[in-house]
Structure formats: C-alpha cells, structure tokens
C-alpha cells in the first residue's frame, strides 16, 4: 500500500510503477519518472535516495533524458531500483511521505506532463507470433491448405523494422503514399493507401548488452527484457501486398509505429504469468482493447466504438523465445532495442487484432455506432489501444497508445 492515493481502476497501481520520460512547461528538460495513480515521481530529484549496492554507484542514470543508461545496468540494477521505489512509496516509509518540500517538488500531476519516447531506439524488430493471426492472413492470401508457411511452427518469424519512425502515443500519422496494384489485370498505380490498418501488438525493450557472436540462452532471456509497452504497428495493406515479395514488409510498414509512453517492468507482470501449454513456457494474461472513432473534442471512452478485444495469452511464441532466437546466430543486442510481438489475435472474430482480419481483407464492413462503416481506416480516425492485467483490487496497466490519421502529405 502506498501513501499516494490510487483508484482501484487506475492502470498505475503501487504494484505497477512503470518508467517513462516526461517534461513539463515549467521544466522542459526531459527526465525519468515513475507513474503511480495520477502522479509522476521525478527520479532526477530523488536519485540520492537510491542507496543499494548497484544503483548507488550509478545514480547518474536518473539524470538522463532517456531510459537507455538505466536499461544498460542490467537485471540486478532493475530489481534493486524497484525495491527502493516500493520502499520509498510505501505508506509506512516516512522519507518521502513526511518531507513536505521534497514531496511537493518530486511529484508531478500526469495531466500537466508531456510524455516522450522512453528510449533512443537503435534497432526495432517485429515478430509474427500469433498463430491465429498468421493462419487468418495465410488463408486470405494463399488459401486454407497453405495458410502457415513450413517454417512458422519451427521458429519465431520476424523482420527488422524502421526505428526512426517509432513514435510516442499521441503523435499524428499521415496516410502513406506508395505503389500498389488493386487490379491484378492492370499495371500498378501510385497514390495514397486505400487500405490503412492498425495492428494490435505488445513490444518489449531490451536491456543489458551482448557482444557480436554472443547468444542469449532462453534460461537467461528474462535478464535482458526490461519491460513492455503497447504498440500499434500501422500497416498499409495495399502497399504491403504488392511490395512484400520476396523480401517482406517495407514502405507498407515503415511510415509510422506508435508505442505507449510507460514501460511496465517485467517484475510487475510476474503475478499474471500463466503456463503456455503449447511451448511449456511462461506468458501473462493481458486484456487489450483497441477502439476506433473519428476524433471528438472532450471525448471519453464512451465516445469510442469498441471493435475488438484480445489477450496476450493467445501468442504462440513467447518473448523469451523471440529474444533467444534473435541472438542464436550471434546477433548482438543493445540497451533500448525494441522487439514487438506481431499482431495479437485470438480464435474468434472479436479477438482479431487488425482490420485486415475484422473486415476479412475488405470483404466485410465494420459498423461504428449507428451510422459509420469501415473496412479500413479513414482520414480523421483516431485509434486508441489500452490494456491491463487485473489483480485483486488493483490493475497493472499500460495506459493508452493513441494515434490519429491525417491526410497524405502533398508535395
């Protein structure tokens, strides 16, 4: 229990304590904060209180404008920092609770903060780890008898994405322009994508560091997974369908990828681990809810239209398998590298994590409210993804991952 009041429905309970990068009008410097309830604890102002054997030698990491230096310290440092934070925020600990001056300066209301990317992302990899999603897409493009490629059940399929276009929640996304071939009997055409889509995903940040040639065994993979965020892997399906042969996604993906600003530490998610009956490894149960509607000033969740609900437990390949496979050839990792799950889809239509599946490649319509119809996204549409793990009277959540579609930029 914390001395900071936290509503039972808040994503940022005492059991969570996610890390993020924020600034304020009064102090535009980007700095590391921890979310609790509707507050942010500014770690740059309390760095001297981290007196553990590891962090005490590296208190400078909480003065940095990104989480990279903290991520680089490794697993023991992360655990030590979390224990210190839980102690300082505890209702029974007076250090912060009773220091009126420090408390008034160290806590900032989330409503007055601007959130930024949590890390400098050096590399970004996107996996393809939902069997239901891979099967659905395979049926659409290759037929039921050839839905899964021969390698899919043998290894976590993935591709290297574009780190420079990963943006924080709230960043607007321009409709991409590219080459596509909507009519297979005619030559390809160039123009704005007509099949813009979202993909409901999770992603994890890598911590620690390895050398070129070094592998991460699956038994040690958890020591390199710093924490998780929500991700919207925006996709231009018509551009992607034409360009992906033979090397995979390119312009249909790299125009923008949105992540939520708060990085939930893996220690906060451990109580929600469930057995993976297929792979015999751990996964956790997470409720995910992407909701889409035209932008409405002063909107609340009631102004949105729920179009799907899914769960991270549906993933076939786990994060530990993804990371171990990523390095099995000796590929090195660096602090702040980002690795995404791929679209999270379940066995029924309500749990499909993309409009490609929900509309079945545009052959079905999705009704928003009483009037609006969608097969893919229109200009002005705002997509919000949110997710949390439900505990006994508390939540460990990720906040929101939000993006609005703007028209294509004109030359």
Your description of this structure?
The chain has 411 residues and is α+β, with helices and mostly antiparallel strands. It contains 9 helices and 27 strands. It has 2 domains: 19-116, Roll (SH3 type barrels), CATH 2.30.30.230; 124-406, Fumarylacetoacetate hydrolase, domain 2. The protein is 17% helix and 28% strand. The strands form 7 sheets. Strands 6, 7, 8, 13, 14, 16, 17 and 23 form an 8-stranded mixed sheet that branches. Strands 9, 20, 21, 22, 26 and 27 form a 6-stranded mixed sheet that branches. It has a 5-stranded antiparallel sheet with strand order 4-3-2-1-5.
Query: Could you tell me the mean pLDDT?
Result: 93
As a percent range, the share of helical residues equals 10-25%
According to CATH, what is the topology of the largest domain? Fumarylacetoacetate hydrolase, domain 2
CATH structural class of the largest domain: Alpha Beta
User: How many E-type strands?
Assistant: 27
The number of helical segments is: 9
**What composes the largest sheet?**
8 strands, mixed
Q: Characterize the quaternary organization of these chains.
A: single chain
CA gyration radius, whole angstroms:
21 Å
Low-confidence parts: none
Q: What is the CATH homologous superfamily assignment of the largest domain?
A: Fumarylacetoacetase-like, C-terminal domain
Identify the overall geometry. Answer: globular
Strand content: 25-35%
Distance between the termini: 56 Å
How many structural domains does the protein architecture include?
Answer: 2
Structural classification: alpha+beta
């Amino acid at each position: 229990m914390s001395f900071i009041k936290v509503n039972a429905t808040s994503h940022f309970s005492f059991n969570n304590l996610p890390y993020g990068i924020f600034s304020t009008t009064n102090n535009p410097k980007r700095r590391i904060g921890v979310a609790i309830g509707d507050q942010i604890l500014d770690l740059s102002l309390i760095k001297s209180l981290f007196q553990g054997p590891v962090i005490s030698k590296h208190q400078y990491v909480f003065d940095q404008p990104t989480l990279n230096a903290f991520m680089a310290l490794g697993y023991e440092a992360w655990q030590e920092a979390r224990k210190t934070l839980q102690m300082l925020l505890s209702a029974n600990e007076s250090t912060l609770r009773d220091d009126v001056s420090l408390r008034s300066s160290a806590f900032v209301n989330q409503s007055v903060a601007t959130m930024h990317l949590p890390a400098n992302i050096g590399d970004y990899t996107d996996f393809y780890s939902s069997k239901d999603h891979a099967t659905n897409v395979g049926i659409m493009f290759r037929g039921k008898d050839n839905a899964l490629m021969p390698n899919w059940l043998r290894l976590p399929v993935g591709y290297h994405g574009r780190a420079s276009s990963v943006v924080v929640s709230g960043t607007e996304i321009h409709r991409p322009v590219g080459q596509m071939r909507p009519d297979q009997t005619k030559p390809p055409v160039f123009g704005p994508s007509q099949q813009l889509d979202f993909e409901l995903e999770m992603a994890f940040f890598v911590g620690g560091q390895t050398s070129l040639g070094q592998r991460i065994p699956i038994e040690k993979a958890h020591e390199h997974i710093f924490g998780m965020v929500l991700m919207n892997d925006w996709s231009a399906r018509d551009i992607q369908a034409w360009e992906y042969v033979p090397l995979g996604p390119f312009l249909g993906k790299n125009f923008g990828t949105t992540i939520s600003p708060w990085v939930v530490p893996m220690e906060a998610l451990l109580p929600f681990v469930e057995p993976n009956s297929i792979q015999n490894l751990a996964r956790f149960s997470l409720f995910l809810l992407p909701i889409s509607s035209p932008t409405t000033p002063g909107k609340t969740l009631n102004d949105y239209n729920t179009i799907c609900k899914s769960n991270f437990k549906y993933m076939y390949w786990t994060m530990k398998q993804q990371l171990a496979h990523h390095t099995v050839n000796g590929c090195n990792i660096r602090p702040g590298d980002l690795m995404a799950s791929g679209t999270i889809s379940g066995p029924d239509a309500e749990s499909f994590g993309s409009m490609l599946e929900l509309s079945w490649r545009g052959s079905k319509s999705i009704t928003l409210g009483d009037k609006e119809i969608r097969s893919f996204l229109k200009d002005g549409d705002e997509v919000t993804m949110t997710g949390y793990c439900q505990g006994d009277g508390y939540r460990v959540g990720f906040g929101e991952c939000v993006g609005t579609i703007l028209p294509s930029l004109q030359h």
